Amino acid sequence: MKLKKLLILTLISSLFIGCSSKNANHLNIFQFPGSLLGTVNDRKREGVEQYAQTNYEELKSEIERGEGEHLDAILNLAKIKKSNFSSVKQMLKRDYKTIFHNVELTAQPIMQAFGRLYMPKSAKDKTMNGFTYTQAWKIVSKRVDREFEILRHNVKLHKGDVLSKIADDLKIEEKQKRETFLAALDGKYRTIFVDPLVVGVMIHSD
User: What are residue 185's phi and psi, to 5 degrees?
Assistant: First the structure.
């Protein structure tokens, strides 16, 4: 739970400047220290980040089983004491879903993009393109959960297959708005998918 809160606040700090107060109140249920990565030695963090991005697939597999040479390597880069390796590996394994299948973290910028396109027309009508915030959130999070790995690879390869399905789910038909929505995750691969791994390792750093 601690890691989940850290991740949500980091993403908010990175991606949600300028969101509406209504959505901000909803998102601030979780707290995520955007300064976390900046408080550690920059060179150490950069080394962990570069290694995480280059060896993401291997680390994903090794953290799931709790052992592996790439996992040992990234713990060494983070300057974690070898005497703590076993306990850190167990904690990372416990947090596997938060690090590698974080639906909430991934759905947030998609919802922000949708909200920017369809701000409620009035205080009386609070729907966005015919959906309440809760309805839209459920639609987005369900699709993200079901096709998480496909979406991750889409974002990495700058493709919009899953986002196009979400646009259909949310009835985004106007061409310009649809194109804007499909760009919601452009350039955010590291922030959404790699940073959770970096944070998950660095919170154990000495």
Answer: -110, 10
First to last CA, the chain: 21
89 and 15 within one domain: yes
Report the SS3 class of residue 179.
helix
Query: How far, in Å, CA of 136 to CA of 129, rounded?
Result: 9
Strands (E), 29-78: none
What are the tens digits of pLDDT across the range 51-107?
Answer: 999 999 999 999 999 999 999 999 999 999 999 999 999 999 999 999 999 999 999
Q: Are 196 and 105 in contact (CB under 8 A)?
A: yes
State the virtual CA torsion across 12, 159, 153, 23 in degrees, nearest 10.
20
3-state secondary structure of 79: coil
Structure tokens at 182: 């499909």
Domains in the chain: how many in total? 2
Cα distance between residue 47 and residue 203, in whole Å: 15
Query: Angle of helix 103-117 relative to helix 175-182, nearest 10 degrees?
Result: 150
User: Residue 174 sits in which domain range?
Assistant: 103-189
Whether this prediction's pTM lies above 0.90 is answered by no
Identify whether residues 126 and 76 lie together within a single domain: no
* Element of type H or E holding 199: helix 195-202
Name the residue among 36, 74, 83 with its Cα closest to residue 55. 74
Q: Is the dihedral of CA 103, 56, 79, 14 positive or negative?
A: negative
